Amino acid sequence: MSASLDNLFGIHTAALDLWQRRSEVLADNLANADTPGYLARDIDFRKALQSASGQGEGLALAAPTSGRTIDPAAQAADALAWRVPTQPSMDGNTVDAQVEQAAFAGNTVHYQASLSFITAQIHMLRTALSGDQ
Amino acid sequence: MSLFKIFDIAGSGMAAQSLRLNTVASNLANADSVSGSADTAYRAKEPLFAAIHRRELGQPRSEAEAEAGDGVRTVGITESQLPVQSRYEPGNPLADADGYVYGSNVNPVDELVNMISASRTYQNNVEVMNSAKQLMLKTLDLGK
């Protein structure tokens, strides 16, 4: 276990951030399911997580331009992509409600998985701190 | 915490769909309305939706945030341009000089389809809101 204090939960905090951001994007797609010309979007999770964990191409820590901290929303937005529609629609809307709903449900499970990993880590640390009591 | 933003997004979707249900109810209620001239006859109404981008809401903190969506809004209500039906009913008190009354151009089949579509999308938004609420509650329980 690598328990340097500022990196207790490893990749899971960044993953949590991204799942949260993705659920926002998917919620936006579902809210615009009947908007003419709206193009559905999604986050390329692999790309976003690579850049969050510093394994992506380019610099791991982009210099913050305006804000005080690194903006996870901005990192995630770099990985925002348009969804490729499975079937055309007359009003140019590319939201497929079933696809979005499935993605949202999957995203919820992933979010909870990340939460479970963090909880397990907390339990482990608590056990280590309290000894065998 | 950006999960709160999902409430706004899903809320805007629910508001838009309930407005759509409202127009459907109005159209169905007025399907048999008659009028004394073609200009004043009831025409089927339908809301026009557009995506909200954060840029329109004020100062985005970054270019990425400006691109991010923020729900849906109604830009206006359109009226169907289909011709209205005219009927010869000289006994009708609303009839014009030639004895014609003008009905609505509401197509009940269109309205029922709209109603089903609106209620499904409304349900989708409710589900999104519920999921976001559950995730927030689970996040509060973190480490227990």
Automatic annotation (TrEMBL), chain A:
InterPro entries: Flag_bb_rod_N, Flagellar_basal_body_rod_CS, FlgB. Coiled coil: none annotated. Transmembrane segments: none annotated. PROSITE patterns: FLAGELLA_BB_ROD (PS00588). Keywords: Bacterial flagellum, Cell projection, Cilium, Flagellum. Residues 13-38 form the Flagellar basal body rod protein N-terminal domain. It is found in: Bacterial flagellum basal body. Structural component of flagellum, the bacterial motility apparatus. Part of the rod structure of flagellar basal body. One of its GO terms (cellular component) is bacterial-type flagellum basal body, rod. Pfam families: Flg_bb_rod (PF00460). The basal body constitutes a major portion of the flagellar organelle and consists of a number of rings mounted on a central rod. GO terms for biological process: bacterial-type flagellum-dependent swarming motility. This is Flagellar basal body rod protein FlgB. Belongs to the flagella basal body rod proteins family.
From TrEMBL, chain B:
The keyword Protein transport does not apply. The keyword Ligase does not apply. Keywords: Bacterial flagellum, Cell projection, Cilium, Flagellum. One of its GO terms (cellular component) is bacterial-type flagellum basal body, rod. One of its GO terms (biological process) is bacterial-type flagellum-dependent swarming motility. It is found in: Bacterial flagellum basal body. Residues 98-142 form the Flagellar basal-body/hook protein C-terminal domain. Pfam families: Flg_bb_rod (PF00460), Flg_bbr_C (PF06429). InterPro entries: Flag_bb_rod_N, Flagellar_basal_body_rod_CS, Flg_bb/hook_C_dom, FlgC. Residues 8-36 form the Flagellar basal body rod protein N-terminal domain. PROSITE patterns: FLAGELLA_BB_ROD. Residues 56-89 are annotated as: Disordered. The basal body constitutes a major portion of the flagellar organelle and consists of four rings (L,P,S, and M) mounted on a central rod. The rod consists of about 26 subunits of FlgG in the distal portion, and FlgB, FlgC and FlgF are thought to build up the proximal portion of the rod with about 6 subunits each. Belongs to the flagella basal body rod proteins family. This is Flagellar basal-body rod protein FlgC. The lineage of its organism: Bacteria, Pseudomonadati, Pseudomonadota, Gammaproteobacteria, Lysobacterales.
